[in-house]
Amino acid sequence: MSTVVILSGMDRPGITRSLLETLDGVGVRHAISDMEQVVIHGHLILTLALELEALDRGKVLESLDQCARSHGLEFRAQEGDHLHIDGSPSEGSAPSVHITVMGHELTANALEQVAKVVSAAGGNIERIYRIAHYPVTALELLVSEVAVEQIKKPLAEIANNTPVDIGVQAGGLHRRAKKLVVLDVDSTLIQQEVIDLLAEHAGVGDQVRKITERAMQGEIDFAQALRERVRLLEGSPEELLDLVRQQITLTPGARTLIKTLKRLHHKVGIVSGGFEAVISPIATELGIDFMAANQLEIRDGKLTGEVTGEIIDRAGKARALREFAKLADVELVDTVAIGDGANDLDMIALAGLGVAFNAKPVVRASADTSVTTPYLDTVLYLLGITRNEIARE
User: Fold this and answer.
1) Which residues of the chain fall short of a pLDDT of 50?
2) Most Cβ neighbours (<10 Å): which of 16, 75, 296, 335?
């Protein structure tokens, strides 16, 4: 049953936290399907849509009423459909920080932890509104009186220990400035590891997979691992590249991500520890602006087991990000890097926003934010792009 709760009255720091603590305290584990909060000239209006079992409803509403009274707020509740909140507030008067919280289900407990971090840092939540309901629910919190650096680390810890993803960015007009988004390819833009597919066709799959995993976990140097794996492909026919291209599938949401970014006049680049001969047709199809990948040496129609030119390893990906930014005339602070493995760490650290996408633990621990859903287009929500903007042609 959908229940809409509305609290209104004079604002003060800690109200949102208290409300969420109350919900968590009465054992509410059902989804918060929508939420909006706005402060106008010091007057708070907070609306919350809850999915409650009939047996829980009375207990929950009584507790929320008592919470509201303790803060001098008016309280109303009614059964109703989900709220549908479109758009976002004007950027011209945006508070200092935007916090995006998203997940398949947003519980009071997860949001309460976020509110505690904001409160402990001396911040005030001025508005909460929903920017997406599909394929995940995404809420954006606009927070004043706090800096990104004060809350980024503790919020990242919450994301690592709860089933929600959290992104933090500074507010202001630059948030909508022209951006460059650079993606890793294997297990990020696409669902496979290209070299593993090549190895399967060459009959050396097990050996190559073991080296790949050690490289992605950061246990061995990527350049060394690449050379070792490519040597195992020596003598394989060039036709293997065509077979592998046919097996590649894009990550769900990849087309939507790139199409939306391009429509909003952002530039998109890809960097890959894989091979240009395999991914170049994909880049062309998707309209990718910049690409950097490794070159396989082919002689007399066969792979020689060697790579030519500069190896795109961990440092190479960071160099590519810098080069792409110059070509796109974009400052590094306005770049976004998305990856999943240890060889993505340098570019994730260099970018204005580093996103770990279904990543290894070492990457999640280092990135600004993590995405744990299987949908690549949910990264758009971290940029403040709403579902309505994504759907708009």
Assistant:
1) 81-94
2) 16
pLDDT tens for residues 281-309?
999 999 999 999 999 999 999 999 999 99
Tokens representing 232 are 């195992």
Domains, the chain: 2-171 (3.30.70.260), 180-391 (3.40.50.1000)
pLDDT in tens, 266-286: 999 999 999 999 999 999 999
186 is catalytic: yes
User: Phi and psi for 203 in degrees, rounded to 5?
Assistant: 80, 20
For residues 385 and 169, is the Cβ–Cβ distance under 8 A?
Answer: no
pTM over 0.90: no
221 has catalytic annotation: no
- Can you tell me the distance from the alpha carbon of 106 to that of 102, in angstroms, rounded to the nearest whole number? 7
Tally of CA atoms within 13 A in the half-sphere of 276 that contains its CB: 15
* CA contacts within 13 A on the Cβ side of 341: 27
* Phi, psi values for residue 139, rounded to 5°: -110, 145
Active-site residue (options: 11, 34, 184, 346): 184
